[in-house]
């Protein structure tokens, strides 16, 4: 837009492929497209005048909306830690200031919460992936979750439940192990340790699963 030239929004058209985006025409010519949230916030309606200063505000708002929308899509596919979202936005090449603003907005709107994320991740890995607390702890550390959040999530684990899943996994693994009884026990313990279970949980699980099974095999 030229300085001193009065510019008026002459048309607003909803995009056919993306119903939440609109094409804005100024002085009968296409000027830019915006998300509907930006459209409403800045009153980009037909007949409204728009100068260069206001246009720059709209452009910056649209940039913020783009980063936010990308983050929401990323989170929508799977729960993410704050570090994971930040890294993803940086990989897309967004400016640091825009990334920081987006992260704060997502936190305020409760879309990202490392405390809740740690709880959900721990429960899923224990119950559906048959992983032990040591494995989960290492994963959460890699995802940038603060130690206090990790400790809180681990502390909330029910030890009996964790033991039950360890026993279930051990019972499934035991028939495939070869060797003398003591050798089978050693291999089973090593297997459970690699899955992230603590030594005390492994000891209990091996004892419960092998005592009856190995006695039957020996007979």
What does this structure look like?
The chain is mainly α. The chain contains 10 helices and 3 strands; from the N terminus they run E-E-E-H-H-H-H-H-H-H-H-H-H. The protein has a 3-stranded antiparallel beta sheet with strand order 1-2-3. Helix 2 packs across helix 4 and helix 5 (114-128) packs antiparallel against helix 6 (133-142). The radius of gyration is 28 Å and the shape is rod-shaped. It starts with 8 loop residues before the first strand and ends with a helix. The relative contact order is 0.07.
* Biggest beta sheet summary: 3 strands, antiparallel
| Strand tally | 3
- The low-confidence parts are none
| Strand line-up across the major sheet | 1-2-3
CATH class wording of the largest domain:
Mainly Alpha
**Helix percent band:** 55-70%
The structural class is: mainly alpha
Termini gap = 91 Å
Give the amount of beta strand, in percent. Answer: 5-15%
CATH level 4 superfamily of the largest domain: Winged helix-like DNA-binding domain superfamily/Winged helix DNA-binding domain
CATH topology of the largest domain: Arc Repressor Mutant, subunit A
Pfam family, one: RecX_HTH2
Function: Modulates RecA activity.
Family: Belongs to the RecX family.
Domain RecX first three-helical: 68-106
